[in-house]
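$ run holo --ligand "zinc ion" --emit tokens
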Amino acid sequence: MKIAHHPDTATLMAYAAGTLDEAFAVAVSCHLEVCDECRNSVRWAAALGGGFLCEETGTTPLSEGAFGRLLERISATSETPHTAPDRVSLAGDGVTRGTPRALSGYLDTDLELIRWKRIGPGVWQKPISLSPGASSSLRLLRIAPGRGVPEHGHGGQEITLILSGAYRDEIGYFGPGDVADLDEHVEHKPQVVSDEDCICLAATEKPTRFKGIAGRLLQPFVGI
Amino acid sequence: MFIPSATIPERGMNANADLAQSHRALIGRIAEHRDKDAFAELFDWYAPRVKAMLVKQCGSSEMAEDIMQDVFLTVWLKAGQFASSKGAVSTWIFTIARNRRIDVFRKQSSWHYVGIGEMEFPDEAPESADVLLSGEQDSLVAQAAATLPEEMREVIHLAFVEEKSQSQIAGELGIPLGTVKSRTRRAFEKIKQQLEGVL
Ligand SMILES: [Zn+2]
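-- output --
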């Protein structure tokens, strides 16, 4: 399966710089697990960071005896040097196998065993708690076939990663591994087109403004 | 001492690439022989730079020094792992410092911490057809960055060196967020274009 929709290049650059807020960083990480192309982009971007580090950051004098203290820590540590790479099996074909690694640490169970909370007809969610300092929020959404999320404008950036199933909106068809990386100017109305429920991971910045009466009714429950 | 000219590589005669190669050689010595002299040499070159970057990002010299110490402990422990990859040492150390800084800040905020910093991707197998950056190629990335128009350089410099988010950069420069994003995108595309001719 080929991934058709990737995070914005600017988002990948921010990921490489380490400046994305937690929810977005998790969503992007999950995409990177299944996308060779974006992994390469992030590597290029990190090389920029390496270049800046070498040539532009300048130097700050270290405290007295810094290297000596480091050697003491090395001899005190019980950790032995790693030799073999920590291989993570990464796919390049957009297929998510089980729970994405970047997400698994945040869940107390596997994706299949999640206890969903119904928030509307054919729509369920599972909020994911992040560090209290996070200024973004992360949730899993499960939407039944044929169902849509009410049309909404975005109150900031929103990144949605499809984990299973598929939806279609004004932008196109979104299947597993695809990412919708939208800013506040985009309005869309996704409709689930797969036979199975569509499960996606949604990172948002601020509460979304739902439009229309149904949307207004749903907003307190959905909270996206 | 007589050095046969044949040992001087044809390519990579520029100072950046030479530096990148010598850093890789140091990593090799650390990985294979746990060579503390090589480690000291690498530390002397990188530690004041890592600290300088962290001071900008954390605002505290003490915290920067602590994180820098953690970074080099990781360098020592993982040199063997890194040695088998193709990346540049500078990129690797930048990534370790970035991850450690994120970890420390999340840990500070609460006990409920999950290590997204551990999301370090191993290099793909060399047989993959994708573009792979060798140490030398990474230094070309830095050179390409140096030729970017000032307005593009500025936004990526603020992001990578000062760890500013795109909204913070927009606020600081008094430009719309969309402009920060489009400059970032164009910077990336320009660098990629330049390198496609070389790689
Ligand atoms: Zn991608």
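-- notes --
Chain A touches chain B through 73 residues (CB under 8 Å).
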